[in-house]
Amino acid sequence: EIGIMKITKAIIPAAGLGTRVLPASKAVPKEMLNIVDKPAIQYLVEEAVNSGITDVLIITNRGKGVIEDHFDHAYELEDKLSKNPDKKELYEAVLEPSQLCNTYFLRQKETGGLGHAVLCAKNFVGNEPFAILYGDDVFISDGDPVTKQLIDAYEKYGKGIVGVKEAPTKDVSKYCSLKVQKIEDKVFNCTDMIEKPKPEEIMSNYSILGRVVMPPEIFEILENTPKGAGNELQLTDAMKTLAQTKGVIALDYYGTRYDMGNKMGIMKANCEVALKHPEIAEDFKAYIKELAKTL
Ligand code: UTP
């Protein structure tokens, strides 16, 4: 019995084109869009770190160099702020992203799909199970971070874990649909799945949203998976093969998801985080109440 390997690596695919949030994402990567005072991708790296991850690989592309800058030192700023005792908190906030964990960057040289982006991480991951945090999905949960919930499930079941939520039928066709069988509360055996199903192909309203934990076998499967929807290599198609052969576990996680890849998601994230932000919560609440009267 070798036991189950501890999960310390995560990848964040962030090389998509972000067409749903143009023109905002023309020069600024959508992963760098703000939620009150932090870019979305910082929430993801913090979630990974709070889940026990020590090494994060962010998949970028040629337009996304500012993501690397955000997790690097900003010497001039840090130097100035560190010399001013009144700016201690700001100094720490500027320093923090560079201190979270080991961050690595790799460019996906063509937009070949989420599966192609994940395949770029093959040598980084090696022969270990690892987490994938979809770059535009931010989660805020009061309890364990979503990635931690999936890692715990991996340690319990020893199989690939896909994070799922029940989606309205009209949305399932935009995501994917899973064939599931309940094992216990919030936990299902998944033996089949389909990316962007037609209405008659829907197997359940459970869709994979935002987070998965995969065994290293997924790379070999990806290498043998043909291009799928949108003529892109789909991660879902590879996970489908894994589900049909070894089986995967679907975990209905808890936590609120904000899709930073669309306009409503961005507005909800900003609104809800602002209503809890220590610096502005009170003023923002008063403002929202006044505004609501005029609606
Ligand atoms: P999306 O399906 O949201 O695609 O990708 P997108 O291109 O970013 O956005 P739209 O549809 O054009 O608005 C899901 C995740 O996979 C990453 C994206 O960055 C996002 O985090 N991705 C997608 C890649 O890293 N590479 C790809 O080739 C495609």
In summary, what is this structure?
The protein has 295 residues and is an alpha/beta fold. The chain has 12 helices and 13 strands.
Using brief descriptors, characterize the structure shown.
295 residues; alpha/beta; nine-stranded mixed beta sheet; two-stranded antiparallel ribbon; 36% helix; globular; binds uridine 5'-triphosphate
Structural commentary:
This protein is α/β, with parallel strands linked by helices and 295 residues long. The protein has helices spanning 40-49, 65-70, 75-82, 88-99, 114-119, 122-125, 146-157, 169-172, 217-223, 235-245, 263-274, 281-293, and strands at 9-13, 34-35, 38-39, 55-60, 102-107, 130-133, 137-140, 161-166, 176-184, 187-195, 206-214, 248-252, 256-259. The strands form three sheets. The chain has a nine-stranded mixed sheet. Strand 2 and strand 3 form a beta hairpin. Helix 3 (75-82) runs antiparallel to helix 4 (88-99) and helix 9 crosses helix 10. The longest helix is centred in the last third of the chain and has 13 residues, at 281-293. The protein binds uridine 5'-triphosphate (UTP). Uridine 5'-triphosphate binds at residues 13-20, 59, 108, 111-114, 116-117, 134-136, 261. Uridine 5'-triphosphate is lined by residues 13-20, 59, 108, 111-114, 116-117, 134-136, 261.
